[in-house]
Each structure stands twice: as C-alpha cells, then as structure tokens.
Automatic annotation (TrEMBL):
Pfam families: Neuropep_like. Belongs to the NICOL family. This is NELL2-interacting cell ontogeny regulator 1. Keywords: RNA-binding, Secreted, Signal. GO terms for molecular function: RNA binding. It is found in: Secreted. GO terms for cellular component: extracellular region. The lineage of its organism: Eukaryota, Metazoa, Chordata, Craniata, Vertebrata. It comes from the Eukaryota. Residues 1-30 form the signal peptide.
Amino acid sequence: MLARCLPRGAVLTVPLIFLVALLLTEPVRADQEAGTAIPAESRPCVDCHAFEFMQRALQDLKKTAYNLDTRTETLLLQVEKRNLCDCVAANLLN
C-alpha cells in the first residue's frame, strides 16, 4: 500500500541510501566508549574470579554426584531387600 503512494524510484532509493550510510559509518571502538578508563592495577582479576567460581561449581557437582550415588545405593538396597522378602514369602507359601 505504501508502494502505491511513493514513486517507484523512491521505493528503491531509500533502502539504498540506508545501506550506503551503514557501510560508510565507522563502528565505535572500545577506546571511544563514554566514561573513564579504570587502570588495570585496580581492576579485579577476572581470571581469578572465574577460577574460583569454577572451583565452587565443581565442588557443588561433586557433592551432587555423591548424593546421587548414595541415593542410588540406598534404592538398590531397598529393591534387593524387597526382592529377598518376596522370595522368602514365596518359598514359605510353597
């Protein structure tokens, strides 16, 4: 509907102008950002924090794995006990 109101040349020219403008503009570099730069000496050690985070995550995973392993052992023992009780009860009935 908009194409009917505008001349055919305008429909093709406007997107072309936007495309050329995008190609000619420079992207903003990191040194052009607004604000003050924080010296590297006063910034926290990102690698150290990431390492500590990963250590805590690994400890949590180890605890979870241990808890799952313990729960699995408990469930297996319950199943074995139930099967043993069923066998004893079946032998008593025969």
